[in-house]
Amino acid sequence: MTGGAPPADRPLDLAAALAESGVDELLATLDAELVGLAPVKRRIREIAALLLVEKLRLQVGLSAGPPSLHMSFTGNPGTGKTTIALRMAEILHRLRYVRKGHLVAVTRDDLVGQFIGHTAPRTKEVVKRAMGGVLFIDEAYFLYRPENERDYGQEAMEILLQVMENDRDDLVVILAGYKDRMDRFFASNPGMSSRIAHHVDFPDYGQDELYAIAGLMLEKMQYRLSDDARTALGEYIERRRARPSFANARSIRNALDRARLRHADRLFGAAGEPLSREALMTIEASDIRASRVFSEAAATAEESTP
Predict the structure, then answer these.
(1) Exposed/middle/buried for 99, CB within 10 Å: 0-12, 13-18, 19+?
(2) Which residue of 135, 203, 216, 304 has the lowest C-beta tally within 10 Å?
(3) DSSP of 109-121, one letter per residue?
(4) At 103, is the secondary structure helix, strand, or coil?
(5) Across-strand partners of 176?
(6) 158-216 pLDDT, tens per residue?
(7) What CA–CA distance (Å, rounded) separates 81 from 72?
(8) What is the pLDDT of residues 208-240, one digit of tens each?
(9) Which are the contacts of 301, defined by CB distance < 8 A and separation ≥ 6?
(10) Residues contacting residue 239 through CB under 8 Å, at least 6 positions apart
(11) What is the number of alpha carbons within 13 Å of residue 128 lying toward its C-beta?
């Protein structure tokens, strides 16, 4: 045998292989940094386990052939699809399924040109940057618009299909977007659908999960909420979730950014007074309740009052 491979009948230490790869550490980090998403985390763990076991099978002369690694991530905005894609790139790199482990995130505008001869070089340049890692295409259903006869997305699709087949040992493609639109996209593009091995659906966050996400964000930014602000944030999340433009964790991050602006403006308005470290850290209920979510809800309630 060459390269120091173990004999086919020698037991392999799965725990040692897992520790050596560092994948267990990455999965633990994923659990710690992302609230909720239990089915997503479970699916990522299953994929990681499959890839690691396939490595061990190769060591004893067993193989089911190179695993197909192209994926589809479906779910609403702000559900962690890009973050999971980043971690997936790291896992693939640790297990040596990709050379570099970097992520290149793009949309249709990065791939499709607006005139003849523009699309191919743009798409090929993106593919070149992504080689050795993961290409993440958000809102992938916009790649091709069959209702527009002059759309150049088909050219980008053909290049991607060829790369996904011929360079699958050096590039993993993850297509992402709303589930219903992605389902229609795959139904109308069987060639693309046949190349996707793993479909991962990202659920929306619940009320408590969003509150926990806000807490993690504030902790990283070294802010805290007053007691009244905690109550206000809970009410904000409940009202914000009911709005059609709600974007899960993304909406929470935007809300906290605006609360920080109001916090800073409130302190600025009290210029001349000494500031404590506590004041610089503490977001008050007024910083949250100034949101339009509260004023619009109050206006709606007033209009419905007989």
Answers:
(1) middle
(2) 304
(3) HHH--SSTTSHHH
(4) strand
(5) 73
(6) 999 999 999 988 999 999 999 999 999 999 889 999 999 999 999 999 999 999 999 99
(7) 10
(8) 999 999 999 999 999 999 999 999 999 999 999
(9) none
(10) 293, 294, 297
(11) 6
Q: Tell me, what amino acid is at 118?
A: H
Question: What DSSP letter does each residue of 16-28 carry, written as one string?
Answer: HHHHHHTHHHHHH
Q: How many residues does the chain have?
A: 306
Opening angle at CA 297, ends 295 and 302, nearest 5 = 95
pTM of the model: 0.86
DSSP state at residue 142:
G
- Cα–Cα distance, 45 to 51 (Å, whole number): 10
| Residue 268 CB-density burial (10 A; 0-12 exposed, 13-18 middle, 19+ buried) | exposed
Q: Which residues contact 252 (CB under 8 A, 6 or more apart)?
A: 78, 210, 213, 214, 217, 237
What is the DSSP-derived secondary structure letter of residue 141? G
Alpha carbon of 81 to those of 150, 234, 294: distances in Å? 31, 24, 29
Is there a contact between 246 and 240 (Cβ–Cβ < 8 Å)?
yes
Please state, rounded to an integer, the average pLDDT across all residues of the chain. Answer: 89
Contact 133, 103 (CB under 8 A): yes
Cα(40)–Cα(27) distance, rounded to whole angstroms?
12
Tokens describing residue 63: 């193989």
